[in-house]
Design a protein that fits this description.
alpha+beta; eight-stranded antiparallel sheet; 3 helices; 22% helix; disordered N terminus
């Protein structure tokens, strides 16, 4: 009886530890530069005006549109909705948690916990239940140098 109880406690602890290690982010955290993942083209235009450069393509899965603002902020739309936002170089865009370029990588742990994955220089935080959707932070020399929000493919 004691062995069964001890085994149950150990198993339960392992399951609990495994479930608390995940640093998935809530979907409402998918914001970069004040724009939410899934926002409309008109919402981006209202916030940022006309893009410096835009490209449109028809793909088998729908209309793909890319907007570039300066050399530092890009929006990708699919069928009129934001599917990816990218900030790099000297962009002052921040996530909903206030994370921006040039910040120490330690700020990521404070804002989001341990990443779900680290691949080379990328610290990745996934949205629960949405494969390939989340936040990706490129870190070089301890500083955040690139942020992607939305589709991570």
């Amino acid at each position: 009886m004691m062995k069964k109880m001890l085994l149950s406690v150990i198993t339960g602890s392992m399951i609990l530890a495994g479930s608390t290690c995940s640093a998935t982010v809530p979907a409402d955290q998918l914001v970069l530069g004040g724009i939410q993942y899934g926002a409309s083209i008109s919402a981006v235009e209202s916030a940022y005006g006309a893009p410096r450069k835009s490209e449109r393509e028809m793909e088998s899965y729908g209309e793909k549109v890319e907007y570039k603002y300066g050399n530092t902020l890009e929006f990708e739309f699919l069928n009129g909705k934001v599917v990816r936002i990218k900030a790099d170089d000297f962009s002052d865009a921040k996530t909903k948690a206030g994370i921006g370029l040039g910040m120490d990588a330690d700020a990521l742990k404070k804002a989001y916990g341990a990443p779900d994955a680290i691949h080379e220089e990328d610290h990745i935080y996934y949205v629960a239940g949405q494969q390939g959707i989340g936040l990706k932070f490129e870190v070089k020399y301890g500083k955040i140098t690139d942020i992607k929000c939305g589709s991570l493919f």
